[in-house]
Automatic annotation (TrEMBL), chains A, B:
Gene Ontology biological-process annotations: lactate catabolic process
Principal EC category: oxidoreductase
Gene Ontology terms, MF aspect: D-lactate dehydrogenase (cytochrome) activity; D-lactate dehydrogenase (NAD+) activity; FAD binding
Matching PROSITE patterns: FAD_PCMH (PS51387)
Protein family according to the UniProt entry: Belongs to the FAD-binding oxidoreductase/transferase type 4 family.
UniProt name for this protein: D-lactate dehydrogenase (cytochrome)
The organism of origin for this protein: Sphingomonas jatrophae
EC annotation from Swiss-Prot or TrEMBL: 1.1.2.4
Keywords: FAD, Flavoprotein, Oxidoreductase, Transit peptide
Domain FAD-binding PCMH-type: 46-223
Amino acid sequence: MHHAPLPPRAPLDPAFLESLKARFGSQLHLTEAMREQHGRSETHFPTALPDAVVFARSTEDVVDLVRLCTEANVPIIPFGAGTSIEGNTLPVRGGVSVDLSEMNAILTVNAEDFDCTVQAGVRREELNLHLRDSGLFFPIDPGANATIGGMASTRASGTNAVRYGTMREAVLSLTVVTPDAKVIRTSRRARKSAAGYDLTRLFVGSEGTLGIITEVTLRLHPIPEQISSAVCGFESLQGAVDTVVQSIQLGVPLARVEILDAMQIRAVNRWSKLALPEVTTLFFEFHGSPAGVAEQIATVEALAQGNGGGDFAWSNLAEERARLWKARHEAYYAAVNMRPGAVGWSTDVCVPISRLPDCILETQADLAKASVPATILGHVGDGNFHVIFSIDPNAPQEMEEVSAINARLVERALAMDGTCTGEHGVGIGKQEWLVAELGDAVDIMRTLKRALDPRDLFNPGKIFAL
Amino acid sequence: MHHAPLPPRAPLDPAFLESLKARFGSQLHLTEAMREQHGRSETHFPTALPDAVVFARSTEDVVDLVRLCTEANVPIIPFGAGTSIEGNTLPVRGGVSVDLSEMNAILTVNAEDFDCTVQAGVRREELNLHLRDSGLFFPIDPGANATIGGMASTRASGTNAVRYGTMREAVLSLTVVTPDAKVIRTSRRARKSAAGYDLTRLFVGSEGTLGIITEVTLRLHPIPEQISSAVCGFESLQGAVDTVVQSIQLGVPLARVEILDAMQIRAVNRWSKLALPEVTTLFFEFHGSPAGVAEQIATVEALAQGNGGGDFAWSNLAEERARLWKARHEAYYAAVNMRPGAVGWSTDVCVPISRLPDCILETQADLAKASVPATILGHVGDGNFHVIFSIDPNAPQEMEEVSAINARLVERALAMDGTCTGEHGVGIGKQEWLVAELGDAVDIMRTLKRALDPRDLFNPGKIFAL
């Protein structure tokens, strides 16, 4: 996919700027540095600066900003940690980037109900630190230490999704400022409801295009009595994937199971100072009672042995486990940093799990012919994997080459009844693939967008161009 | 809530009727008996006849019917098994009831991927019969043997939701005929996706007001190696609920846990020829490996003993288990049949589980003053319970009395951050409560409805009156 240079824009109306200054004072930022910081992507997309940045401190701040922006016909783009992968927060039509990172209060924890309510700018790691003494945890963990609001907006997941689901399952309710500057709560705190259209799930994954999420009520889970992590190398990728599929078929409630190819292991070893054998490897985590975990492990070890797996290397101490999973979470940075000065590009297909071995093997064959370094890692229990390319930003032909490989990968996944985006969202990068994937259903999405945001001011140019 | 008599309607346009006859032949029914069958509710709502009934046999039939109805400005109301509780399928503005019960093919079962695709008219019991040899099962089980399409439309759940979720989690993808007579598929078959707005979840629970579901792709689960069911009587309701909350807090993965009060046990004993002690009782089911189930049981038995529970009466044989859960599924009919000639009314609040004891106890105190017989049963692990009233249809003051009790119950649940409808949907019966529950969010729902169905022809008068 090519990204044409952005068209020139008129500067912000001075009267609008004055009204922003009057309402937001020191919360308003106009410096080049601050605009740069909110106009950059972590991946290969070109920078696109907002005209202004406003740090919101309350839902009321967001309401007033929405009112001012809609009156002046200025785009408004929510921003959390800026760690999204598909250019989801880039202000491609300018406007105001509303930074929610200072809305980082944990409002309530209802331990008996296994839920909590947080402001959108809370980051996932801070939430889990806060929860530790309650005996509960929040399982959704994209690689980055993202904000909960950003994770809801892109329908993020991570390494625990095979057991605990994604943000689709984790979000109980949202507080949203709508394009007409109303504050709605999408649901009550009951764990299930059949009360009309599922607005919670409509806003989860809508990437700020239908309104701005300011508070999130999340489902939590009890910290398991026993947690055991292990790594296991395999002779073949097929053997590794078969081990996972067979485990799930036997009802083993795997908490985490991640695949990393040999190149990715090399990158992780270097970045995180580990010494894993450089072969296709599974990272496992088992949750349960001590007896239950022992039973899960016995089943999975036997399956791994039958599929060309080596010995399990255990990490049972909390610090060892933390080190292992920190290495996994930093795998993207590890891969991109293998090549000095490189820019990263992460693919994100997800297929029915029975098709995963073929999808990865065909992709590996394609990568074998590539000139750009690439690693593979994935949430194998979900059928979701990433190829991480490390691209020389001064070599346009590399971008072309990766773009073509990604196109073949997405087509391969779609032919297997898979999706072009398992967890990164559509943003800028997956728009044409969204149409290839869902056809006329995208027209329904456009109709919904036009109905709720008729002037296309909320994160315009994302998911689809109107 | 009072239901005024329906306004008189003009008969169907003869030209429209001719076009229906030409296209649908023997699939079209105009007899009083057939219209009665599609204009009746299982509960207390007045009959509302459709002008015609069409039995669809394919998605193409539905497309053509939608085209004819929209051209002629005639309402179209999807109908499955007709077992909904809130008047969800009643043609309150006339029109064509499209009966999907003959679209009952199981299209594909992908055992390796734990999913299947079925036509909307397949019933849940038939699906599980079909799946038995695959080692998989479909867990969602409302009391009635409902159709999968109807269950998706009302976001139904049942006794397994505490472990396996509701139709919100169970539906992977839908085929929908939209109001502009297009056929869309809302998602691919991958287990997770971040591909734009979550249309699957938007249509789940939309009660036929945004389009007509013709096919459903469902998540399945492996049949557990060990299944054990038990009943346990308690000295107090508080003790029963505390046992459940404490079990969940300890991470026991209860598959089913249902509460029945003494009156409901009396009704079940009579209807299903059981001999359970007539006290507040929990029905349990445990799923897992033999060792895992034994561990779960030991934990829960110890908690029950500490909370005034009696001995567990076990049903380990498949036939015994089936008898127990059949009795539970027929509890609504059992309750209503306690009073000859009575009409049933089932309430459906769901609250955060920490509030459940207070919610039930306050409701019991209110019921103690009532003149209409009532039982209580519920999905205690979800915080969802039903009061089932048996109303004399010839005593209007009984309907008034139940309406007032239900109003107090819903207000009580809303004050506890609960919902007016845990699993029955909004239909006709919960419209004013939906607004009390979600306020301005209902305006967003209306906006979505108007955008997708601007002439209000799809199941008009449900969820909200436009």
